[in-house]
Amino acid sequence: MGSVWRGGTTTPILPVANIDRAAEFYREIRFVVDPYDSGYAFIRGGGISIDLAQTDEFDPFVMAGMAYVTVRDSDATHAAIVATGLVSGYHDLDEAALRELWGAGESLARITAVENKPWHMREFALADVDNNLVRIGSRIR
Fold first, then answer.
1. Which is the CATH superfamily of the domain at 13-139?
2. Residue 30 · residue 82 · CB < 8 Å
3. Is-above-0.70 flag for pTM?
4. Which of 11, 87, 88, 139 is the most buried (most CB within 10 A)?
């Protein structure tokens, strides 16, 4: 008996405080941002889809979302994101510093190094401007 899920896809919906700022961040890290309005955006690239939803009274320390993205080459993807200059080191900022940045209207975007994980993925973590966690990895062959 075949799976009822065969051929399906998934699209995470990440909450954001400001749709224009979030869409620009994803555009800068090489996603295509499809036309949007009413606080909702569609981003895509290389078979990956993520939706962004502007959320009233968004709190990035309570309401941030998560997604896992599989790519062919996590090292190349990491290098391309770092090259934009939009992210800081993940561990360079503690929670107090992040809260201070958020209070000043600044981006919370940051990134970890790429690592081999025990679950046979080479991956890294990317926090976007609104603190949503996007783990990005490629299968270790």
1. 2,3-Dihydroxybiphenyl 1,2-Dioxygenase, domain 1 (3.10.180.10)
2. no
3. yes
4. 87
